[in-house]
Amino acid sequence: MKTVLNVTKLRFPALALSAVLIIAGFTLTHTRGGFNLGIDFQAGLSQQLEIETQQTPSADDVRAVLAGIDGVQVQEVSLNDRPAFTVRVRDDGTISNFSEVMGARVVELIEGQFGAGSVIEVERSFVGPRFSADLTRNAFLLVGFAMGLILLYVWFRFKLGYAVSAIAAVVHDVAFMLAFIGAAQLEVSTATIAAVLTIIGYSLNDTIVIFDRVRENEDLLRDSNFANTLNVSISQSLSRTLITSITTLLAVSAIYFFAVGAIQDFALNLMVGVLVGTYSSLFVASPALLGWQNKVQPRRDRKKQAKGVSVGPKTAAVGKPVVSGLSVSPGVDDNGSSTAEVASPHSESDVEAMKRELAARKRQAAAGAKHVSRAKRKGKK
Asked: I need a surface site. Which of 60, 147, 169, 286 has the fewest CB within 10 A?
């Protein structure tokens, strides 16, 4: 007797938890002054400075020295195991030759506080207003384009309900990532966009693995309702999903602990994204698919029937016998309100054997249809 995890029963608490965390993250982001936009996404100057003094100043000390400059941001970083600071100043377009003028002023103010020659400018970069606006627009277009391709791909490979459910999981992941980045005040840069796109792909891969198993089990568990089919499919895919996520986390954790600066932030975003992507595949995409099958699909079927288009048979109730040697015990309705078990007198290899048998029957049927078609063509001649 193999117990099947009743994941669908947890969908409402899981969705409520996600909503609370995302709202809390965006609220904290707002209270902390919004997103910490890097120089890529706001026009202005960025300087990396080392300050050589007997007692290393803190970011608050440097921030107090530069308080007279509008739109200044100071972040403490580490360069070659030595403390340093990243100073960003927004360009509002009122100062010509902004990079040279403002860069010299920042160095002058800090040296005025900590002594002449105490500042070493390691790096200076400047992004103009037009380039910053173009980059921001392109980032939004890139994420939107990726989601559109995902929708088309999953729709083509599966069905519309699967595609909508996959997009729901991806939107959840992006919202959660943005809430985390804003709440933690991580710098939003081009590396952040790369991390978000990476997590979109990772989450989609997890979701498709589960959906592919659902599609297979829809043929094997014909007399089971869709909630049971989902629970069985998730339980069968769970070990693969967890092992993949843990392996990925170990690799990314190594980058996080040994890297510094933007690479470390990138690794942290990936670590959070892997956890969220795994969670959404189980508790967002699958419940969304269940909701589609229970609420939206029946309405679509009724509309097709009204137009005279035939639709497939509805899934039967739980408790009826299924494919040889495998049955789902009663107790899980279409809303997934209780536990389910798979009764199998043999090992899981029996399930694989049934899949191969089903595939062989399909091939035989296709070959028979092809033979009949050839015979008809010869008869006409």
From this structure: 60
